[in-house]
Each structure stands twice: as C-alpha cells, then as structure tokens.
UniProtKB/TrEMBL annotation, chains A, B:
SMART domains attached to this UniProt entry: HTH_MARR (SM00347)
Keywords: DNA-binding, Transcription, Transcription regulation
Single GO molecular function: DNA-binding transcription factor activity
Entry keyword annotation includes Transcription regulation: yes
CDD domains in the cross-refs: HTH_ARSR
Keyword Transcription regulation: yes
Protein name according to UniProt: Transcriptional regulator
UniProt xrefs under PANTHER family: TRANSCRIPTIONAL REGULATOR, MARR FAMILY, TRANSCRIPTIONAL REGULATORY PROTEIN
Residue ranges occupied by any HTH hxlR-type domain in the UniProt entry: 11-108
DNA sequence: GGATTGGGTTGCAAAATGCAACTAATCGGC
DNA sequence: GCCGATTAGTTGCATTTTGCAACCCAATCC
C-alpha cells in the first residue's frame, strides 16, 4: 500500500485496514477467539506459511492485540493470547460473520451464534441511536472529532456536503 | 493466500477475508459510504493505483457489493454505488471504526458518529443476547449450522471442547 | 476538428507471499 | 547425560500481488 495517500492520516478505517487488512490477520484473531494460542495451532488450523505467521503474530503483538508469553509448563511453546484490545474486536468479528452469512453464497447457515447459557440465538448486530432506534447509513453523520487531522476533516466536510445533495435515494 | 487450507470451506470469516481482506477493498466501501461513486473520485480520494482500483471495483461488483452503471448525463463516467449487500456492511464499518478509535493510537477522537437528525452520538456497537443483554466472547457459543461443511463443523466442535477446559480466564 | 476528460489497459520494477529446508532451544525416554 | 522428537522460529528462492507511469480510446467540450 502506498506511503502517503490523502486520507490515511488518522482515519480509523484506514488505520484498522493497515493493521488487519491482509489475508491472515483477521483469521488469526478469529482463531484466537476459537481458542488457539500456540504457534503450531495457528499454523495447522489456518494452513498459513510459517514465516507469514511469524510476521503477523509479531505485528499483532506490537499493535497490542495479542500478548506473547512463554508457557510455564513447557518452555518451548509460546502462548499468544488476546489482550483486552484484541477481545474488543468481538463485535467486529460477529458483525462480519453475520454479514457473510446473509450476503455471501456458501456462507448461509454455516455457523449459529448462540448464548452459551441459554442456547438462544444472539441478535443481529445493529447501529443504534442514543435512544435505541436502529440507524442506517443515511441517518448517520460523521463529524471530525477534536483530534482529526486536516485531511480527514476536509474529507468529512466534503462528504457531509455531498450527502446534502442526495437527500433521498433508496433503491439498490 | 493458499488454495486449500483447513477451514476455508464455508467459514464466514474466511469468506469475508477473501473478499475484503486486502489493503483497499474496505477503504473503497468506506469511500462509497462517504459518497464517492466515480472511478476518479475513488482514485483521488484514496490515492490508489488505477489498475488496482479497476481490479477491486470489478471484484466488488462481482461479489454484489457495488453496482456498476454508466452515468445518464455523461456517458464517459461510470457510477459505482452500493447495493443492498454493500450497505449492509454499515454496522461492520462502524464497529471497526469504533474499535480503532478506542484501541489504536492516533485514532482517538478523530471522528464522531452522530445521528443526523438529533446530533446525538450513536451507541457503541455491542453483541446482544436475544433479550438484550450485552454478551462477551466467553458467553457465546458457535455451533455448526445446517450448511456447515465437515471441516468447519470439526473446527467448531474442537473449539467448544477447548472452551470447556478454560472456563474462567479473565486477565489480559 | 482539436484538446481534454473519464475510465480504463499494459509493461515493468518492487514488495509481499508461499514453500521447503535449516536452526536452536527444550523436552521425554532411557 | 545422550538421543530423537517437538516447538518456534529463520533463511533462500520462486511466484504472486502491488505500485507507478505511460499509453489507449470513446465521449465531451469549445
């Protein structure tokens, strides 16, 4: 990916894409949620090349999503476990998964997410207003926050203006 | 990425990673949400190479996330707009964005998501049980659905068993 | 009709990825 | 304490993907 493209400043999507936007990082996080922790487990369960796995684990550790710790019982093995940051990706993974099931062929009804205690299906992930109504993209505004850099700020202002012109479009 | 690794069958995360797991696809979708539609707009706002952009737009159109249509008013320009599937990625983008803001340095307070009508901040995206309690990863079970292929089924069963052994781990 | 614009394609260099072979430390058996 | 096996890497090399710049062609503007 390029060094200096327009909005790559502190745009949150750009930043998360830089970190997780490759063919493996998200899979590794998913594996970690499924209980993998050792180098070998990731390798075998994902079928990832070992040098790439090394590289990604290091990157994820540096980013603070995984913690690297030598095992107490066997000093050959290294345990990678999700940190608080890593576990906070939980809603992202579920949202992605639900989207896949609904919109990609071959993914429908391959996994059921249920609450362990009750066995009931969880809700579909939604964007909610402060008072709990479900919002869609058209009802949302993205404003530059206090720490937005100039490029991001300009981009968001431009988007706001564009949104004004469109007003009502609904068809797909 | 490899051709045939263990769980790449119909695992939803694997499938969405295959589609959006590169440095640009998600950025393109984000741009589309921000109002971009023309080839040039994507190119300039993202700083993406034109051959790569061509490739990604085609892929996203094939996957049904974007719709490609020649403009009515100027037959040189092509409009790419989000389909229903594409717009359904909205919660995913918001979840990713919120995660970035909370867990990546330089992303904090760069964007504020507010409801257009009221100006109020939206809620944090959560995983909710059927009756509306917030769940975390430990409270969730992933069961193979009716269409899970054998590899995925085996993987999920293994994860369930592993989860049994762990029971209570909370530290990070 | 000539220059410009929009949306590409093509060729080539650079970077990322995949694969297999090799290491270094640790373990378990004896 | 030695020996083979296991774990987590590393290294070298072939293949694939990216990025960049130049080129192309139809539609549009003047």
């Amino acid at each position: 990916m390029s060094k200096a493209n327009p909005c790559h400043g502190n745009c949150p999507i750009a930043r998360v894409t830089a970190l997780l936007g490759d063919g493996w990082s998200l899979m590794i996080i998913r594996e970690a949620f499924l209980g993998s922790g050792k180098f070998n487990e990731f390798e075998k369960r994902l079928g990832i090349a070992r040098n790439i796995l090394t590289n990604r684990l290091r990157k994820l550790v540096e980013a603070g999503l995984l913690q690297r710790k030598a095992s107490e019982t066997d000093r050959r093995v290294v345990e990678y476990r999700l940190t608080r940051s890593g576990r906070a990706l939980f809603p992202v993974l579920i949202a992605l998964s639900q989207w896949s099931e609904q919109h990609l062929s071959d993914c429908s009804h391959s996994v059921r997410y249920v609450e362990r205690a009750t066995g009931e299906e969880i809700q579909r992930i939604k964007v909610l207003s402060a008072d709990g109504r479900e919002l869609d993209a058209g009802e949302l505004a993205m404003l530059p926050g206090p720490d937005a850099d100039p490029a991001l700020k300009a981009r968001l202002v431009a988007a706001m203006e564009q949104a004004g012109h469109e007003a009502a479009h609904a068809a797909s």
